[in-house]
Write a structure and sequence with these properties.
The protein is built from 14 helices and 17 strands. By secondary structure, it is an alpha/beta fold. A hairpin with a 6-residue loop joins strand 1 and strand 2. Helix 3 packs parallel to helix 5 and helix 8 crosses helix 9. The radius of gyration is 21 Å and the shape is globular. The two termini are 16 Å apart.
């Protein structure tokens, strides 16, 4: 990580980004976190210092820790809204008693089911160790049933490791659809999808809703650094085959400072150029859990407000069209909705407002994701989707509605937490849960690891 340069302090605030507040209170915001060494719950504060916002916390045994959580490239108070601070007697058992506990404030939008810990890559940032015994297909079917019983009908994410290493994955997808799951998502690096067309066809026939595909950049240098292999050709081939079998793909870049943070606009433009096969881009600023061996320096942190500014400056998306998360905590992520017009431009459908910043339920968020990421084609055409789109008059109400249905596009992000920046105020609103040993556990809690991995 030594080659990542500290460029954040010299970035210019864009007029497109919300200006940093000048009248907000300087009183620290109280919350709780964990000691990054022993993972014991400790008191924490978010405090403004030198134009940055830090989380600071002290463990009686291991000392004081702090890490940057926001760089004031956008107004954190406006972005967070009116959510109250963590109460003195709330969530005192978090994260140790998670499963999820009655104090958790959000339902399950998405539930992640690990189908393997095996992987055909050895990435620089990963929590999969490859040593956990792989569950049988019958065990996974039982888990699918148990998730339904515990969480209703969430969006089911089949994950790993690399789940496409399982030959029986199409059978599991078909079983989940048979059991009533409306949306089944595959989290994948895309390598088998690029190499095995019959496997992609089998997934499509089984009813797979969409693929959430690792996609870090537009040149092989990024992949060689993060994934130890030149993978761009395989990634693009995976998109082509998913397109052939009408499976929507959302690209998922892990954003690492000095590696691919200057390619955010290029990734979005590449994704748009492959609409409607590609349904959007879901950015994930790097978090430090799993095999990462040490406490990251502040200049290695890539914060959510930096991403907001980069999307505006590099992709030309006005800040007013990017909304805070309404299902999870606002500091956990963002979303923006568009239609890709025939000339390749993005027409924004989302605009920040007080009404849009009101909380949404897990069910509402699930439908937002499912509607946008699942592939739809225009009706009434026997000559293929592209021919149909050429005939549409998008200026008409009917034409625009069809275009919006078939060429919807999202820019979203999730800023996962690790042991250094875990904020229990945020964690208790998590709607992405991992199924583990019969329990539903918030993602950042399930994969929480101490410094040293």
């Amino acid at each position: 990580m030594g080659e990542q340069d500290n460029c954040c302090c010299n970035q210019q605030r864009s007029a497109a980004a919300a200006p940093a507040a000048t009248a907000t209170t300087e009183r620290p915001r109280h919350t709780r976190s964990v000691c990054p060494v022993c993972l014991t719950q400790v008191e924490a504060v978010l405090k403004r210092e030198g134009g940055l916002i830090y989380m600071e916390k002290t463990c009686a045994e291991h000392g004081t820790f702090r890490t940057v959580v926001w760089r004031e490239l956008a107004d954190i108070e406006q972005w967070r809204g009116c959510l109250p601070e963590l109460g003195a007697a709330e969530n005192l058992g978090c994260p140790d008693n998670c499963g999820i506990c009655p104090e958790h404030q959000q339902g399950s939008c998405c539930v992640l089911l690990e189908v393997t810990r095996r992987c055909d890559l050895h990435c620089r940032f990963c929590f999969a160790d490859g040593t956990t015994p792989e569950p049988s297909l019958d065990e996974l079917k039982a888990a699918v049933d148990d998730i339904l019983a515990k969480a209703g009908q969430p969006l089911l994410q089949l994950s790993g490791g690399e789940p496409a290493l399982r030959d029986d994955l199409p059978q599991l997808v078909a079983y989940a659809k048979q059991r009533g799951y409306k949306y089944v998502q595959l989290n994948s690096n895309g390598l088998r999808l690029a190499a095995d067309e019959a496997y992609v066809r089998a997934l499509a026939e089984a009813g797979l809703s969409f693929v959430f595909m690792q996609f870090d950049g537009v040149d092989n240098g990024v992949y060689e650094y993060l994934r130890h292999a030149p993978l761009l050709k395989q990634k693009l081939r995976a998109i082509e085959l998913c397109d052939k079998y009408n499976i929507g793909v959302t690209l998922v870049p892990t954003v690492v400072r000095g590696v691919n943070d200057q390619q955010i606009g290029e990734i979005i433009r590449l994704a748009v150029s492959r609409s409607p096969a590609v349904r959007g881009v879901h950015f994930q600023p790097v978090s430090y859990f799993g095999r990462y061996p040490e406490q990251p320096a502040d200049d290695q942190r890539y914060t959510l407000d930096e991403l907001l500014l980069a999307i505006s400056e590099q992709a030309g998306v006005a800040a007013e069209h990017i909304l805070p998360s309404r299902c999870d905590h606002p500091l956990c992520g963002c979303h923006a909705s568009f239609v890709v017009l025939p000339d390749g431009s993005l027409l924004p459908l989302s605009r920040r407002s007080d009404a849009q910043q009101s909380p949404s339920t897990a069910e509402q968020n699930r439908e937002y994701v499912g509607r946008h990421w699942q592939r739809k084609e225009p009706e009434g055409c026997c000559c293929g989707p592209q021919a149909a789109q050429q005939e549409l008059d998008v200026a008409s109400l009917e034409g625009f509605a069809q275009r919006a249905s078939s060429h919807g596009f999202t820019i979203t992000a999730m800023a996962f937490q690790d042991a250094m920046n875990l904020d229990i105020e945020r964690l208790r609103r998590c709607s992405l849960h991992v199924y583990h040993n019969g329990r539903l556990i918030p993602f950042c809690c399930r994969y929480l690891t101490p410094i040293g991995g």
